[in-house]
Specification:
With 76 residues, this protein is mostly helical. It comes from Lactobacillus colini. This is CopG family transcriptional regulator.
Amino acid sequence: MAKRTFELDDETLRMLKYYLAHSQIEEDELINRLIKSFLTEHLSSKQIQLARQHKGKDSFPTDEILRNFGDMWKQD
C-alpha cells in the first residue's frame, strides 16, 4: 500500500517519540497496530468482514461503510 502522510499534534508526537525510544517496535508497525485496533473497536463485525474482502474501490459498499463510520463519530 502507498505511504500516507499525516501530521501529528505536538503532544502526540512527543508521546510517540518517547514510546518508540523505550520500546523495540518500529514506528510503522506501531501505527499500523494502533489504527487496526481502533478500527476493529469501532467497526461492526460485518463492516470488518467487508473491508477484509476489499480488493478494489468497487468491491464493497464504500459509501455505506463511510456513512456508518461517520455515524460512529457522532455517537462518541
